[in-house]
Amino acid sequence: MKIVELNEQTKAEVREKFLNRSPKQFGEQEAVVKQIIADVASRGDEALFSYTEKFDHAKLTKETIEVTEEETKEAYAAVDPSLVEVIRKSLVNIRSFHEKQKQNSWITTEEKGILLGQKVTPMEKAGVYVPGGKAAYPSSVLMNIVPAKVAGVDEVIMATPCGRDGKVNPSVLVAAKEAGADRVFKIGGAQAIAALAFGTESVPKVDKIVGPGNIYVALAKKAVFGNVSIDSIAGPSEILVLADETANPRYVAADLLSQAEHDEMASAVLVTTSRSLAEKVNEEIEGFLQVLSRKEIIRKSLEGYGCILVTDSRREAIDAANLFAPEHMEIVMKDAFEVMTKIRNAGAIFLGEYSSEPLGDYFAGPNHVLPTSGTARFFSPLSVEDFVKKSSIIHYSREALEEIHRDIEQFAKCEQLTAHANSIAVRFEEK
């Protein structure tokens, strides 16, 4: 990885490259996505089956589009029982963490008959998209379904691509069953997002769509937003490690590579106060690249979006980390907890040399669906709150309203909304 001194110029250059990985201009893909969405919205199942055959080379019908109980049983038979146990252990941690996020409705009462409150209501239907194709992501199944189930969503609908044989990856199916998916459909890509957003003869319309995917899935989610809610438009994965001379360079190198292996646009950045550590980390990276299976992807990721920034002070390192607002941030420094208090922008923060990023991906419990591409400045991880709605509750007695009705009328008249003022005034007309 390239080692550079941190200054205003290098900081700006690296940040620009870091942020520009996200899709900005994809006119050709956007046009394709819009056509697919319009087609599925218009022709329903017919279009859905056609696109599945075109893109996934699988022939589906109304009888085969949804995963059956028999197919789920087959999946359990195909998955190593030890992996099933690992999934169940992970689920315990994920549920426990998300249970702590639950919010309750509340009401306050005041004198003279004033009652104010907030009603928290789960969504009726949530759609979870799980990528397929080159890899299987049972961890994403757990992270997207569990908060919805904890929130109390009535029905969680999962969509994931099938293979040419019309089968869904067994580990993904097992994870879906264990997490509590109510229905699973064998559809992928922009056509799956359209089906969830508008509904077809076979696929129910949902209220919200969550989950990662390729550029076509991301653009489709963006296009249907407003008709349904979405979690976010996810960009390539990223990690930023904050480290000083106390950090273990082998651990730091391994953690940087854990994200670089995702794809060629993934970003791995080390910000350190130690030039010696920077050089040792680079040596360790070269060693790992001799043995890791995805070394070609890793090399391209590091060449395009990897960097080691060396700074003179901890304060400068922290400021740089907050500027990047990374999806994953590891702090491997003296007084890591004290440093953490100065972090304003990060999707997830991992503290200490034994809190490696994959711990959050698979097992610790906090959600691994995180804001990317600098959006941690204003977005948060996927949570139970993403699957509920909040309604305000207002009740005033006549006595309570009488005391303040002229104030409301004056406010309304100030805005020239006389019907608003009248709506209050008629309640106090002289008989």
From TrEMBL:
Cofactor note: Binds 1 zinc ion per subunit.
Keyword hit for Ribosomal protein: no
Known cofactor(s): Zn(2+)
Catalytic site: E327 (proton acceptor), H328 (proton acceptor)
GO molecular function, one term: NAD binding
InterPro entries per the UniProt record, alphabetical: Ald_DH/histidinol_DH, Histidinol_DH_CS, Histidinol_DH_monofunct, Hstdl_DH
Transmembrane segments: none
Protein residues bound to Zn(2+): Q259, H262, D361, H420
Keywords for this protein: Amino-acid biosynthesis, Histidine biosynthesis, Metal-binding, NAD, Oxidoreductase, Zinc
CC annotations in GO: cytosol
Listed pathway(s): Amino-acid biosynthesis; L-histidine biosynthesis; L-histidine from 5-phospho-alpha-D-ribose 1-diphosphate: step 9/9
Family matches, as Pfam families: Histidinol_dh
SUPFAM superfamilies for this protein: ALDH-like
Stored CDD domains: Histidinol_dh (cd06572)
Known role: Catalyzes the sequential NAD-dependent oxidations of L-histidinol to L-histidinaldehyde and then to L-histidine.
Official protein name in the record: Histidinol dehydrogenase
